[in-house]
Amino acid sequence: MTAIIRTIKLALIRKGQLISKEKKNFTRKNGYSLVEILIAIAIFVSIATAITYLLLDASVSFRQGKERVFATSLAEEGLEAARNIRDSGWDNLASGNHGIIVSSNSWNFAEESDLDPSGRFSRQIKVENAGDDRKLVTSTVSWDFTPTRQGNVTLTTYLNNWAKIIEPPELPTWN
């Protein structure tokens, strides 16, 4: 019987030593786990920040592209209006800075630049002489993308007085 008690005591002592070793290892593992958790959180925050930045940048780029396409269509419309005014009469294509208005189903120049229905985009048509029976037409659309950043689209074309009758030069006569 005493041999059995001694064996149990030895087993308990050994088990106690094992438990104390496990506790030491457990606290060391806790320290490593805390560092691992902090690293994981840092990686997660970095990735989340990068994804958020990319999404916001993509959103801004999409909006800028959408507004640029709209501004380009307004500028093209301005050039087409100038062509229409030229087609109604060369003298109607007066030099200077103009806006565009529609009256009685035809385009006409206005004294000031015109705005789109939303009021965000401003269009100005500039007509300059570029020689006899030729004009340089520049259509510029500008808008405020942000309060500190302005967007601009400028399109240019030459218009000729194609309706003018040109007399052919006289041919030399051979005697």
Question: Can you offer a commentary on this structure?
Answer:
Strands 1, 2, 3, 4, 5 and 6 form a 6-stranded antiparallel sheet that branches. This protein is an alpha+beta fold. The longest helix has 87 residues, at 2-88. It has one domain (1-164). The chain is rod-shaped, with a radius of gyration of 40 Å. The mean pLDDT is 83. The relative contact order is 0.10. The protein starts with a helix and ends in a 15-residue tail after the last strand. It contains 1 helix and 6 strands.
Q: How many DSSP H or I helices? A: 1
Give a quick account of the main beta sheet: strands, pairing sense, barrel closure: 6 strands, antiparallel
| Rg (CA only) | 40 Å
Uncertain spans: none
Distance between the termini: 155 Å
Strand content: 25-35%
Helix content: 40-55%
Would you count the extended β strands for me? 6
Question: What spatial form do the alpha-carbon principal axes imply?
Answer: rod-shaped
Q: What's the domain count?
A: 1
Order of helices and strands: HEEEEEE
Structural class: alpha+beta
Mean pLDDT: 83
Summarize this structure briefly.
With 175 residues, the protein is α+β, with helices and mostly antiparallel strands.
Set down the secondary structure blueprint.
Elements: H1 2-88, E1 96-103, E2 106-110, E3 114-115, E4 121-129, E5 134-146, E6 149-160
Antiparallel strand pairs: 1-2, 1-4, 3-4, 4-5, 5-6
List keywords for this structure.
175 residues; alpha+beta; six-stranded antiparallel beta sheet; 6 strands; rod-shaped
